Structures are given as structure tokens and as C-alpha cells.
Amino acid sequence: MSDKIAKISLEQWDTLYETLQQTACLRSSYDGPLSRHFKAGDLRLAKLKFDNSQASLRLWNFLLTEEERLHQARAQGIKIVGTMKDLGTVPVMVYSLDDTIAFYPDGAWWLPCIKENTTELLKVADSLGVDESFCPVRAMLGAFVTKRHFPVPDMLISSTGATCDDFSVIAQRLENLGFPIFWWEIPHRRPPEPDEVSVSLPGSFLAAESQVDFVKSQLQLVSSALEDLTNQQLTDGKLSAGIKKANTVRSLLDQLRQLVFTAQVAPLPALEMLVAEMLAIHFCSDQDETIIVLEHLIDEVRNRIKAGIGTGKSDDARIFWVNPVADLQVMNLLEDCSGRICGTEYLFSHALDLIPDDLPPMDALAQIAIADPMVGSSADRAARICRDIRRFGAEAVLISRIPGASHCALEGLVISEIVRSELNIPAVEIEVSPLTDSFQPTIRTRITALVETVKQRRPK
């Protein structure tokens, strides 16, 4: 545990790292000063504030060395599968196979922020007819075309059907550019008809059994494609073992979220929590190391809670955050405004739910896939958000709209109205672009107003 908790700059981390080298055991293969990532082009790091624990340093170095791991995997002959849009289901299948890893090409949507647009990925997307009217995930097109940020996968797999319209268009454009995609379909999750057999899904949603069966048939096609790619059989035994390991990650994240979101004082900053939650989607290309990283974070958090210390103040406004931010700096900004995160819904809550282990493995994966909040109604998603608000004790909801994203057009309004009606707490929306520098005064004003509203509503 750090002797004194603080949020520090990139330069301060370099000074602290020199001390750690002399006094601590830094054992991971990717250890090193954070500034090396800045020198490699991750310019946004210079404007962020970081938690000063060794556990957080390991988290950041793990995140920022993923490209290196992918290139090393390619050199070692390991199969690389790009899993797009399903956010957490197909990677479980991929990691159930030997010498095969998954990664999430959609994650390129953060590159314009991290690189501060120096790679001009959005300009490449513009030149391909996918302009700023689309979600920032369009940066993925530039990443594939330039081939600068990750190796071209041996296979691309993408869900389609009840998915973000923007992403579907962008993925189709990608295939048109010569990057073949194996498509599988997921239907819009709907309430079962009175005469239909229903299935209770992880996350407390309901679906018609026929829909779950359809998704299972689609995932079986994915399984066959992976078997052809790897010359391996994806047996029930392998899938069960893969589910068990994925559930280890999900269980650790559930522990971390419960500890952090319910502590009297936030024991880990919002930015590090955002990065940690993102590991659930595809394990940052290393499932074993993901488990170690999360275990270290939990140890640090438990020690801080036991000592009664944290990164903010006990009267910070407890905010439930909806949608991931395109600009990471906004998470720092929330805390600068005396807010803290007490619950999140970053579009992939189904990747945080435990996969049922008392079902045939393909049935279990089908259930978790159709439990995706993005394939159901906005009212479904709002209901889950309300349940988690009650669980974590949040006092307000902040929804970050993603520029151009089709699913953000009216969904925020629906969620806000349901939250206000059911819980009688304030809810506001802000739009977060990949770089918010010129908009920060406006964003700060909106967040500050929400924080002040929360504090004024508290019992005197």
C-alpha cells in the first residue's frame, strides 16, 4: 500500500518509479516508467492524473503494452482473433482454445484521445466516407488501413443485427476495404409473449427461449469457424474451463466494484476503475495477467479501506456514470468537481455478470450474449441502472453522450426520465468528444451544477 494516497502527474510518476525500483519488487515483464508510453506517442498521458499505487502502475502498464503483446503473439505463431461488437462473449470462446487470443479492434475509438489525434485516424475515416456524423469508433477504419497500431487479425468476428447502427456501417465499410469478417446475428431482445417459454437471463432480464436458442445456433457457427482457424475442437470441456476462467475475472471485478463504489471514501480513482472494468471485454490480450492485475488492485483497495483513507473526501457527490467517455481526462474532471463514481454502466454490463456454470456451456454463452444491454430496449437498460444505483447508493446519474453514436440519440433521455421517476434523483447528460480541451469549461460547469444539486438535496 502507498504511504500517502495521491493523484499524480506523469512526471511525478517517473520520480516515484525511480524510488520503487530501489525499494520494491517490480516483477511484471512490462514494468517501466509511464513516460515511455508518452514518448511512444500516447500524448494524452501528460494531461491525466494517476493513482500513485504500484497496483495502478501495473494496471496502466498492462493496458498500454497491449499492442506489444499482440505483435509478440503474431511473432510466436499464436492465432489472433479480432472480436467486434459483442463485448465479452466471443472472447470467452477464443480463450478456451490453445495458442489463440482475442482482442477488441473497436477499442481503437480511444486512440484519437490517447494519441491526441497525431495519428490522424479520424482523417483516414473521413477519406473513406465515414465522417464525424458517426461514432468515434470510426477510428478503427484508420487503424486497419494504416496498420500502425495492431497486427491484422487472423480472423475478424463481428455480431450484427441488434447492434449499434454506426458500428454496423463502419464494420461493413471495413469488410468492403478487404478485411473479411465472419458475421453472426443477435436479435433484438424482446419480452416473451404470453404463450412463449421464457428464460431468466444474467442481469435479471427476460428473453424468449426461442431467441436464446437462435443465439446459441449462431454461436455454434462461430465455434465451427474458430475450429477451422485453429485446427482444434472447441469441446464442451474446453468451453467449460474457459467459462470458469472468465468467471474468475468477472468475480474479481465484482469484488472491486463493490469495494470501491460502497466505500465511505473512494479508495481508487474513477480513471483507474474505468480501465479496470474494460479488462472484462477481452482481458487486454492476456487473461492470466488480467487476473493478477485485478488481484493487486483489490489488495490495494482493501488496505486503503481498512486504513480509512481514499482519493477524495467523504462528502463527495456519489455519481452513477452511464456510457464510457471518449476523453479519459473527463474522469479526472469529475473528481476535480468533488464528485466520485459510485456505479457504472459502460455498455457492457453483461461482460461483468457471471456466466451460468450449471448449464451446457453454449447455452450459458447464448444467455450472456442476449443479456447485452445494447440489444434490448432502453427501458430494460434503465431498469438495470436503477437496480445498480440502489446497490451502490449513488445520488445522481451522469450520462456521457458519445458524439455521432446512433444509440445515444434518445436513449439518454429515456434513461434520465426513468431514473428520475423511479428513484427521485437528478440525472444529466453531457457530450464527450475524443478531445474535450476546448469544451472543458462547459463540461465542468455541468458537472459542478450536478454535484451542488446532490449536496443541496442531502438532509441537513
Structure explained in plain terms:
This protein has about 450 residues and is α/β, with parallel strands linked by helices. The chain has two domains: about 70-205, no CATH class; about 240-455, Rossmann fold, CATH 3.40.50. It has helices spanning about 10-25, 35-40, 55-65, 65-75, 90-95, 110-115, 120-125, 140-145, 165-175, 210-230, 235-260, 270-280, 285-305, 330-335, 360-370, 380-390, 410-425, 440-455; strands at about 5-10, 50, 80-85, 100-105, 155-160, 180-185, 200, 205-210, 315-320, 340-345, 395-400, 425-430. The strands form four sheets. It has a four-stranded parallel sheet with strand order 4-3-5-6. The chain has a four-stranded parallel sheet with strand order 10-9-11-12. A two-stranded antiparallel sheet has the order 1-2. Helix 11 packs antiparallel against helix 12, helix 11 (about 235-260) packs parallel to helix 13 (about 285-305) and helix 16 (about 380-390) crosses helix 17 (about 410-425). It is globular. The two termini are about 35 Å apart.
Q: What is the fold-level CATH name, i.e. the topology of the largest domain?
A: Rossmann fold
Number of domains: 2
- Report the helical percentage: 40-55%
Q: How would the global form be characterised?
A: globular
N- to C-terminal distance: 36 Å
**Rounded to an integer, what's the Rg over CA atoms?**
21 Å
SSE layout and pairing:
Layout (H helix, E strand, L loop, with lengths): L6 E2 L1 H14 L11 H5 L10 E2 L2 H11 L1 H10 L3 E6 L5 H5 L5 E4 L7 H4 L6 H7 L11 H8 L8 E7 L3 H12 L5 E5 L11 E3 L5 E3 H22 L5 H27 L7 H13 L4 H21 L9 E6 L6 H8 L2 E7 L15 H10 L7 H15 L3 E6 L9 H13 L3 E5 L8 H18 L3
Parallel strand pairs: 3-4, 3-5, 5-6, 9-10, 9-11, 11-12
Antiparallel strand pairs: 1-2, 7-8
